Amino acid sequence: MKKDKSMEKEILIHAEKLFLKKGFALTSTTEISRESGCNQALVHYYFRTKEKLFEAVFQNKLIVFISSFLQIDQSNISFEEKLVGKIETHFDVLYQNQQLPFLIINELITNPERIAAIKIQVESNVQLIYSSFSRELEAEIEKGNIRPISALDLFLSILSLNINIFLLKPLLKDILSLDDEQFNRMAEERKKENVRTIIMSLKP
Amino acid sequence: MKKDKSMEKEILIHAEKLFLKKGFALTSTTEISRESGCNQALVHYYFRTKEKLFEAVFQNKLIVFISSFLQIDQSNISFEEKLVGKIETHFDVLYQNQQLPFLIINELITNPERIAAIKIQVESNVQLIYSSFSRELEAEIEKGNIRPISALDLFLSILSLNINIFLLKPLLKDILSLDDEQFNRMAEERKKENVRTIIMSLKP
DNA sequence: CCTCTATTTAATAGGGCTATTAATACTAAT
DNA sequence: ATTAGTATTAATAGCCCTATTAAATAGAGG
Lengths: 204, 204
Prior knowledge:
The structure is a homodimer. By secondary structure, chain A is mainly α. The first copy, chain A, has two domains: 48 residues, Arc Repressor Mutant, subunit A, CATH 1.10.10; 147 residues, Tetracycline Repressor, domain 2 (Orthogonal Bundle). Helices cover 75% and strands 0% of the residues of chain A. The longest helix of chain A is centred in the middle third of the chain and has 29 residues. Chains A and B meet through helix 6, helix 7, helix 8, helix 9 and helix 10 of A and helix 6, helix 7, helix 8, helix 9 and helix 10 of B. Chain B binds a DNA duplex through helix 3.
């Protein structure tokens, strides 16, 4: 254990690793302490309850996830170029946080009470993302550059395509006999394919 | 309790319901027995272990899931029509088993040992689905009717688009304030949109 | 060196869960 | 009606988990 990091930080790091890997229910504070190299009571000393520790981790991760839809808009590029940028940025964030989609989906379903927390985070950001994007989209449709489609539908399609390779990662790795490096290469290809799929599907 | 159904069947039904809702880890045999209206020991009497009970449920569901890719091929229709049929059939099976994607993803990630079981089921069916489909796809590409794309990529795109609305169901219902009926209507729209997205993305 | 506070550990209460066992109710056949 | 076999329950052992408490230890400042 590097002692320059505080034990509190150490616990947070390992908690994150384990929660991401197995979700809330299957991770015990005992295991977190074991991995962090400290007594189990210490986990509770710093974070009081497992729930609070999870929230500390989850909030952070949620921000990462939601920020994956945000991208600096340069206004001197075309809508299509912007859109490609958004899809790629989104994918890249997921690529850097490959277990994140699982954690979110898992908590969404097994722990519906947590939706409230997610909702707050989502809603406070949704204006930023949705409204301006929606306006631009409609303008493009108006101009006849792309076929009619709601912003929600487009958003869901991008999300779906980008998320799923990471949700299916264990299965894909096993069935196609890929090591991590090979999987990552495949993911890079998927990114391009997702962009292609979305852009082509928008042709008028 | 309808006593015409055997208790064993009753247990299986409620086990399925609970496993689908919360996954393996969060479902206890105690809860299954409570829901089924019997003593907890009886669950073990019939299925020996929670693990075996889960397998009994999971195998069945896995077959449903995998069969969702199979569709009777009428040869007198065009490739595009066939493809639309496949996408829609796939979606419909998911629609009828809305919690199924979650269960599979959840087990895939939290219980990697179970991948072996999934793999066997998948592989024995993959020939049927993949090989003939792949051949037809390549023929269409050859003819210039659709752009070059691997069968795997196409397959993943369809799977991604179809699955995700059900994974995101709790969040969508909450954020958009939908009741079940409204969600189902939305899902129906999504089905059309998914077909549109895929078909348009294949234009050469 | 001593003291005060922050950190860490040991011990344990209390609860839920899985699985097992022994005892009891039920059913059908002789 | 007795018996044999199946279905069901009550009771409980044994685990692991969360959370709490009290005690031990370390480090900083006087």
